[in-house]
Amino acid sequence: MSGRIVLSGGDAVLYEGIMHESAVVVNDGFIESIGHVSEITPSDTDTVIDCRDRFVCPGFIDLHNQGGDGYTVMDGSDEHIQGLCRAHAAHGTTGLLLTPAIEGNTFRTLLPKLARAVNSKTGGAAVLGIHAEGPFINTGRPGCMPSDGFSEPDVGLLDDILKAGCGTIVEMTIAPELPGSLDLILTLARENIVPSLGHTNATLDDVLRAIDCGAAHVTHLYNAMSGFNHREPGLAGAALYSPDLTVELIADGFHVHPWVLGFTVHTKGIARTCLVTDAMPPLGLSDGEHESLGRKVILENGRLSLAEDRSVLAGSVLTLDRAVANMINMVGFNISDAVAMASATPAAVLGLDHRKGRLEAGFDADIAVLDRRYEACLTIVGGDIVYDAVTGKG
Fold first, then answer.
1. Which end of the chain is less congested by CB atoms within 10 angstroms, N or C?
2. Cα radius of gyration (the chain)
3. Residue 372: which residues within 8 A CB-CB, separation 6 or more?
């Protein structure tokens, strides 16, 4: 969209709190200014959007995303990537990591396709990079990963994966207890790729060694990992206590109990906790049987599980606006803190906090406007409106 956009009269959700009756001015893909609505006089050429009774938020960044609206990251085509990016933009997500399972028979063709989507126009959320979920993960903690998504740590295989990703892999989930994994974590850290611990039976000692090698993040905390025990903290306990690790939470009410969500954030702090979706292709589809990551899954009342074993969660159908709403309504956080965990913290994990994740002059114009139910009604990516609930755009 050419010309300035003025988001007028809304409650701007800043990192420090709420600015009521604000005006957020977008120009040339950036946030030009933020102030009280009385301080800004739009010109005749400005597009003025009435945001009264709305929350104007920094756009959400999803570090863990595998699909939505029937589209899957495992397809790799423009149709599927653009489709899932539009699906999540309709819920306030302005940037995401495509998160494929790294299967031994497909990654060489899949990753180059995904790499082409990074920083390209999608018509929805921007693709900020690739989060490789595996393959150096523990078969004893599979979650819903495909059977071909596991490999023993191997420097040559890692090199092949990184080459196939064409420099766009920014995060990799790895189990630190596997023989040889520490060498891979060192390599990832040297390449400025976030080594994320997950799908693992790691002990505390395993985690501490991994931190010494550069591990910095934890994939979907509590799920598919060694749990907390008062005699052996495991990865969950280590992640709660260590200041060196940021964590992901799937705040759908199924993966982590609301009380544990609250306990985790109060322990880790807002600045070290990220809300993620771990969204799968059935997001937005009707209840029933679907396919996800090559497996049959059942969607019922917002809960996604393996058809073969309904006790096993198969990712989620969560959106980030719903995750923010859940942290407010189910757990009791204020909107500034809930939004920060979906924007500022993931931006910092990716090293993008100098230009994304906050409403600040000079930052990228990635903005989510929420209604009073915390549902996205307008999404702006790089200054372009990609979703508008009023006009039906997106």
1. N
2. 20
3. 53, 54, 55
**What angle do helix axes 204-213 and 181-190 make, rounded to 10 degrees?**
30
Shared fold status for 5-57+358-388 and 60-349: no
> Is 278 an active-site residue?
yes
Q: What pTM value is reported for the model?
A: 0.97
Q: Which of 349, 377, 347, 351 is nearest to 359 (CA)?
A: 347
Q: Which residue has the tokens 């790089």?
A: 382
Name residue 58's beta-bridge partners. 367
Residue 354 binned pLDDT confidence (cut-offs 50, 70, 90): very high
Q: Is the dihedral of CA 75, 80, 84, 89 positive or negative?
A: positive
Q: Under DSSP, is residue 50 helix (H, G, I), strand (E, B) or coil?
A: strand
Domain assignments of the chain as residue spans, ordered by start: 5-57+358-388, 60-349
Query: What is d(CA 96, CA 82) in angstroms, rounded to the nearest whole number?
Result: 12
Query: What b/e sequence results for 147-170 when a residue is b if at least 16 CB atoms lie within 10 Å of its CB, and e otherwise?
Result: ebbbbebeeebbeebbebbeebbb
Name the catalytic one among 11, 252, 278, 337: 278
Confidence of residue 295 (pLDDT cuts 50, 70, 90): confident
- Grouping H, G, I as helix, E, B as strand and the rest as coil, residue 170 is strand
Q: At what angle do helices 234-241 and 258-268 cross, to 10 degrees?
A: 50
Gap between the Cα atoms of 95 and 124, Å rounded? 9
For the stretch 370-391, pLDDT in tens is 999 999 999 999 999 999 998 7
Q: In the 3-class helix/strand/coil scheme, how is 198-257 assigned residue by residue?
A: CCECCCHHHHHHHHHHCCCEECCCCCCECCCCCCCCHHHHHHHHCCCCEEEEECCCCCCC
Q: Map tokens 């920083």 to a residue.
A: 119
Total number of residues shown for the chain: 394
Give the closest residue to 333 by CA, choosing from 265, 272, 278.
265
High-pLDDT (> 70) share of the chain, %: 99
For the domain made up of 5-57+358-388, give the CATH fold: Urease, subunit C; domain 1 (2.30.40)
For 323-348, b/e burial (b = at least 16 CB within 10 A) is bbbbbbebbebebbbbbbbbbbbbbb
Kindly report the CATH number that applies to the domain delimited by 60-349.
3.20.20.140
pLDDT, tens only, 2-24: 579 999 999 999 999 999 999 99
132 pLDDT higher than 70: yes
